[in-house]
Amino acid sequence: MSKNIFLTYFLHNLLCHMQTYSTDSHRLNPGQVLILLEGELTLSHPEKSHTMDIGEIFESGLQSFSIESHESQTKYLILTTCLDSLNFAHEADELSLALIDEDFFDQPKSELYKNASAQYLLQRIAQNDTIPSSGKPDSLIEQILQFIQNNLEEKLSVELITSEFKLSKMQIVRLFAKEGKQPIMTEVRSLRLSKASALLERSEISIQQIAASIGFADSASFSHFFKKNTGKSPRQIRDEQKWLI
């Protein structure tokens, strides 16, 4: 292993065991992702430079970039990925940008909270979340489940999903039955409950934000859905976690 490659590998692993986020670094290191919220900035490298747009996501890969802000009010978040195989979206969705602004710039939050939020944001912008599969890496069932996972904040329906994959309702029913899956909308419900439960138990993100992240317009309808399917309200789950802490 050459000296430069070893140094890059060492730096990447060192960063992964440190803080998982930064809002004021002037350098983007290997294994990091930058999301621009406000203002203008340029990422510079000896061989190239890149000027970012608001909402854009930039992945450093194995290179380092200096960060040059062009405005005093520039806002950006740097996340340390600790993973080599993730592909990230080119732009952050509106909910991700709102979460970043609230969690890292708006009100003071604990380090535990910010680190949990950073991990959740990485999952939101990653394009290859792990989905339970039948063993075929590019099977149609995996593609459908991936689509559902990536769009839980939308008003998902059988019609929307069949249209996206150019399938009839009967074809998708047979596909899910053949693969041993639950009916498609039951799978949607399970994925929503799983995501909501994880956020309630492992983060301090507000119940309203959690509701929006899985497709509910308000916390009341989300609470009714959650309690009906789990036997406990979101507030009960959150209170139990506070008691444990």
SSE blueprint:
Layout: H1 3-16, E1 21-22, E2 27-28, E3 32-38, E4 41-45, E5 48-52, E6 57-59, E7 65-69, E8 75-80, H2 94-106, H3 111-125, H4 140-150, H5 158-165, H6 169-178, H7 184-202, H8 207-213, H9 219-230, H10 234-244
Antiparallel strand pairs: 1-8, 2-7, 3-6, 3-8, 4-5, 4-7
Report what the structure shows.
- With 245 residues, the protein is an alpha+beta fold.
- It has two domains: 3-125, Jelly Rolls (Sandwich); 140-244, Homeodomain-like (Arc Repressor Mutant, subunit A, Orthogonal Bundle), CATH 1.10.10.60.
- It is built from ten helices and eight strands.
- It has helices at residues 3-16, 94-106, 111-125, 140-150, 158-165, 169-178, 184-202, 207-213, 219-230, 234-244, and strands spanning 21-22, 27-28, 32-38, 41-45, 48-52, 57-59, 65-69, 75-80.
- The longest helix is centred in the last third of the chain and has 19 residues, at 184-202.
- The protein is globular and about 55 Å long.
- Mean pLDDT is 80; it is low at 1-18 and 128-137.
- Keywords: DNA-binding, Transcription, Transcription regulation.
- Residues 142-240 form the HTH araC/xylS-type domain.
